Amino acid sequence: MTNPTPSQTQKTNTLNELQGKIITAAQRLYARNLLAAGDGNISFRISDQEILITPAGKAKAFIEPEDIAVITIDNKIIHGNPSSERLMHLAVYQQCPQAQSVVHAHPPTAIAWSIAYPELAELPNACMSELIISVGSIPIVPYAKPGTDAMGQNLLPYLPQHRAMILARHGALTFGESLEEAVNGMERIEHSAEILWRAQSLGGLTYLDDQDVAELKALRTKLGEKIL
Q: In the sheet that 140-141 helps form, which strands lie side by side, from edge to edge?
């Protein structure tokens, strides 16, 4: 049996490290009640052509390294049983060369906004300075049946300008230049949605004036595209 070369060993060690980080991210999302049972999926681009992605049908908080699948950017399966919702991830990677990681989860309050107010095009960002500074805005992508081509197609009008999106009646999707950024984005979506929900239930939403909103948007532009 031939011993692995140093480059092969390094590649294996890198993959093992990335698998561990994906599992840790899934556990973090589960602990924050952003994932339940077999919901959600996490992916990470390891080359121009290859992507690691969590498996279909398994509770993400309890996956093992060997469960994580490998697919190509044109949806060929190299290894494992990848998520049936991978077309969303692939749409992001195909449209956004800066995307290193994609997270799809089911943040309860964010989803509730899309159910209670189906006419909303985005979360009411003019209520909160932090929402504008951290992501700019959080649009609500029209509903698509899970597992269909529409899941990817419906994202296209929002890419690459939006890195944090609510998926109407379904969940949310974020991408980042790192796994940490994508996970932070998912927390940001739910945190913002929960604050707005509490304000709505306490008596209704109030809004910043136009000048404040304009200044916050200018600051957001200066800070760049990353989710904060």
A: 77-79, 69-72, 50-53, 41-45, 101-105, 171-176, 164-167, 140-141
In a 3-state reduction of DSSP, which class is residue 146? coil
120-169 pLDDT, tens digit per residue, is 999 999 999 999 999 999 999 999 998 889 999 999 999 999 999 999 99
CA distance 162 to 174: 8
* Cα–Cα distance, 188 to 164 (Å, whole number): 8
Question: Full-prediction pTM beyond 0.85?
Answer: yes
Classified as helix, coil or strand, 184 is helix
Give backbone dihedrals phi and psi of 199, rounded to 5 degrees, phi first: -65, -40
Domain annotation for the chain: domains and CATH numbers: 6-223 (3.40.225.10)
